[in-house]
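Translate sequence into structure tokens.
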Amino acid sequence: QVQLVESGGGLVQPGGSLRLSCAASGSSFSIYDLGWYRQAPGKQRELVAGITTSGNTNYADSVKGRFTISRANLRNTVYLQMNSLKPEDTAVYYCNAEKTTLPSRTYWGQGTQVTVSS
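Result follows.
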């Protein structure tokens, strides 16, 4: 069992930066692929950024060059550095942990609100 707790959300002006953190409880954090998703009002949840157990990353086209995902396995934490924020980045951001080897497991955090507005 893994519990994920996000932090770092808030209100920021366009062009500003935020860093989200997701702390995981439980052991074997390093065996999970990790991701950040977001869901804006009236829209489906979408993948923002992902990082595999080996450190490979992928990003949504809308955030490439602005967001950076990283993981610190010894701290059981995954981060999302968000720069040059835009109003369209406003959403609830969720942390995700997925174990793809059998038995597979998927865990979600409770979400943290990010609002980009002047």
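Note: Residues 73 and 84 are 27 Å apart (CA to CA).
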